[in-house]
Amino acid sequence: MAKITLSKLRHSYVPNPSSESDYALKEIDLDWTDGGAYALLGPSGCGKSTLLNIISGLLVPSEGQILFDGKDVTTLPPDQRNIAQVFQFPVIYDTMTVYDNLAFPLRNRGRDEAIVKERVMAIAEMLEVTNLLTMRAAGLSPDNKQKISMGRGLVREDVNVVMFDEPLTVIDPHLKWKLRSKLKELHQRVKATMIYVTHDQTEALTFADQVVVMQDGLVVQIGTPVELFERPAHTFVGHFIGSPGMNVLPCELRAGQPYIGTHPVALEGPIKGDAIGKTEVGIRPEFVSLANSGLPATVTKVSDVGRHTVVECEAEGQRINAVIDGVGPAKGSAVHLAFRQDQTRLYVDGWIATEAAQSATETKTETEEQAQ
Ligand SMILES: Nc1ncnc2c1ncn2[C@@H]1O[C@H](COP(=O)(O)OP(=O)(O)OP(=O)(O)O)[C@@H](O)[C@H]1O
Asked: Does the record carry ATP-binding as a key word (predicted)?
């Protein structure tokens, strides 16, 4: 397995790119640690396949380098990169047995039959398909076919990286969660560097330790699922992750204080920089509550979503969601909305522009230091 480095990577499908918009991949710099579980998450057209093809060697980037364990592989063809790929649709040989399908990548590289058997049995056991080993692949259900396809990707021990490209697309919704958790478990057991490409936030957040969120050819944030939820670096991440997504509320800055209409909003911390541009307050619905005082609002919709209730409100001409426990107020009710201050952030031109709230311990330590 390998550490993967993408250095100043850019790609344009246009022969002589002259502006930012000519690039399908704007500049990307990142390090993927050996043995990590990563997801590339973003909507259709954001550049995921372009990046995947650059990593696998199907595409040579217009600019920048790709390194495996520090070795430049930017122009190496796919067969010299030692990569395993699992695609949207199962890639298996229907006429072969499940055993022979799993054995194929190893036999293809001339591995000893004893080693082939050992690896195939281990992978089959992990995937819970040992009872299918003698069956012809043609007779398998779609989810079992995809499991075998995954097994073929995982069976070799010598690959630099295993890449999954929307692998659950053809799987029935009720079986998806099973395969999702199986993949996570497989990563923990196999400990290979894995990259999972998807536009589905649940798949990305379940699988990956680190998620790379892309929009319009740009990496907008790299973080753990918790970091992406708690502190979106960009309003796009706030929208894209979470259900419902983060409230993004246009605001006006007056003497450094944001106002939603006539209502002042308290932020998590000081504003960074000069805050010139489009200013918005970002707060997740989970941190908006119904209170005795706060932003006056009218309830426009109440949805019971199982464990919680989503209360949709209108205030100062804007739609604001609150997620609350228990039964919500009736539609049309007049309420007040309170924003949890340490979760209320300012965004300028989409990017976060407030410093994080200091945790209680940090504040205490500083106070103690000052006292000494
Ligand atoms: N071969 C190509 N020639 C020209 N433009 C391309 C080519 N492949 C992709 N693009 C463009 O590059 C951008 C990124 O596309 P890409 O397929 O990498 O995105 P994606 O996130 O993988 O989307 P999807 O999930 O729909 O595959 C898009 O604007 C797309 O139209």
From this structure: yes
